[in-house]
Design a protein that fits this description.
Blueprint (H helix, E strand, L loop, with lengths): L18 E4 L3 H13 L5 E5 L37 H7 L3 H5 L8 H13 L5 E3 L3 E9 L2 E8 L4 E4 L2 E3 L19 E3 L3 H6 L7 E5 L3 H13 L4 E5 L20 H9 L2 H11 L9 H16 L5 E4 L2 E8 L4 E7 L5 E6 L1 E4 L52 E3 L4 H4 L10 H14 L4
Protein name: L-lysine N6-monooxygenase MbtG
Cofactor: FAD
Pathway: Siderophore biosynthesis
């Protein structure tokens, strides 16, 4: 089967659709596939802010891999016979045998990005690209409530139900919040930023202790071999990722159900255990690569890459040549200063919640959030099928796709682990609500 024609969306803006998806990254792409395969009569449409989205475009580093089994793709756990599987993508692209011969445990991130793009192309008639949603409201038409989504260009779309899959908001630590400088970027803009530099930086600060932070440090060391690169980490050092198969069962659907039923206190305890499987930790291969690099530089008497543990940036001020940092040792309280031509924030993303570093709800829902319930701990009440619980009757169904780690656990993090099964759950929810 060949790809569908690459055409712009033609669905009439004035007619309500059954399902309107906001965002067309992997989460809503997986839902679009599920709708096509399991409920082709449903009238679905999607809005995507990027004119030509590239999955993890800012982090498609040379040699970086998926850290995820390739069969945990857009479809396979839901429908192993789907033509939208990663395996079939390789077959249609003529790379299946060659790929199977690769001496790699996981696929290259670049190849998975091409897989996502391949699947995305086949849904172009159902997507408006370059359509950034700016406001969501509820209005009544002939006595029936429906969503009205307004885009940046003033266009509007109407729908009987909404699925918000915009991805999580980048987390920018307080010292850098509001700092308007082209010399500071979040990891999501990493490659775009370094490729646009007028001249090589002499000093670089990388903030954070995640897998992405280590990958970025290694990429910077290769890209700018003469630069001084300092990785600032709040913990003692860089932690090895928990890859125990017992811990990895946190990415099983049974754990999602278990976590959902747990109290908030139990969720917090489970989070503390599960976080090293996905956050603030690093795979052994890149961690060992970085340690060996630093060792060899010390051996040569020319160390240019440093990891500063127990360190937290307290203030950051931009000047004409870069960013001045004041850094505190978290235990001794000693304060040092640094100056970086470039600062990369490998600081992750915000979860939904009431606490520091979280956001109470996706900002796009600000005009309708009063229609939905929060629990006594300040969290949005999300049903098992990812539908927000309304306060009163008359609110059309609204689902969150890929934003519900605080209610559904680590399997709802920004990975492919349960992506296709979540799409199936949302589809069942749409059925139960009588939308499709």
């Amino acid at each position: 089967m060949t790809d569908r024609p690459d055409v712009r969306a033609t669905a009439p803006a004035g007619e309500p659709v059954d399902v309107l998806g906001v965002g067309f990254g992997p989460a809503n792409l997986s839902l679009a596939i599920a709708l096509q395969e399991d409920l082709p009569e449903a009238d679905a449409f999607f809005l995507e802010a990027a004119p030509d989205p590239v999955w993890q475009g800012g982090l498609l580093l040379d040699g970086s891999n998926m850290q995820n089994h390739p069969n945990r793709d857009l479809v396979t756990l839901r429908n192993p016979r789907s033509r939208y599987s990663f395996l079939n993508y390789l077959f249609e692209e003529g790379r299946l045998i060659e790929h199977l011969n690769l001496p790699l445990e996981f696929p290259l991130r670049k190849e998975y990005a091409q897989y996502i793009h391949w699947a995305t192309r086949q849904f172009h008639p159902q997507v408006a690209f370059g359509a950034r949603a700016t406001e969501i409201a509820v209005a009544e038409t002939d006595g029936t409530p429906e969503y009205v989504v307004t885009c940046a260009d003033g266009s509007r779309r109407r729908a009987r139900s909404l699925v918000v899959g915009t991805g999580r908001t980048p987390f920018v630590p307080q010292p850098f919040a509001g700092l308007d400088s082209p010399r500071v970027c979040h990891l999501t803009r990493y490659l775009h930023t370094v490729r646009d530099l007028d001249e090589p930086p002499r000093s670089i600060a990388v903030i954070g202790g995640s897998q992405s932070a280590v990958e970025i440090v290694l990429d910077l060391a290769h890209r700018f071999p003469q630069a001084r690169i300092v990785n600032y980490v709040r913990k003692f050092g860089l932690r090895l990722k928990d890859t125990s198969p017992f811990s990895e069962e946190g990415f099983f659907p049974a754990f999602t159900d278990y976590y959902y039923r747990a109290s908030r206190a139990s969720k917090n305890e489970l989070d503390a255990y599960m976080r090293p499987t996905n956050y603030s930790s690093t795979d052994a291969d890149v961690l060992h690569h970085l340690y060996a690099l630093i060792y060899e530089q010390r051996l040569d008497g020319d160390q240019r890459v440093f990891v500063r543990g127990n360190s937290e940036v307290r203030t950051a001020d931009a000047d004409g040549t870069g960013v001045r940092l004041k850094v505190e040792e978290v235990h001794t309280k000693d304060v040092s200063t640094d100056h970086a031509d470039l600062v990369i924030l490998a600081t992750g993303f915000r979860d939904l919640g009431p606490h520091q570093g979280q956001e109470a709800y996706p900002a796009l829902l600000s005009q309708v959030i009063d229609r939905f319930q929060f629990d006594d701990d300040g969290y949005l009440v999300v049903e098992p099928d990812y539908r927000l619980r309304p306060r009163t009757d008359g609110t059309p169904p609204l689902f969150l796709n890929g934003l519900c780690e605080s209610s559904h656990g680590i399997g709802d993090a920004g990975s492919f682990s349960l992506l296709s099964l979540r799409a199936a759950t949302i589809l069942d929810g749409l059925r139960k609500q009588g939308v499709v």
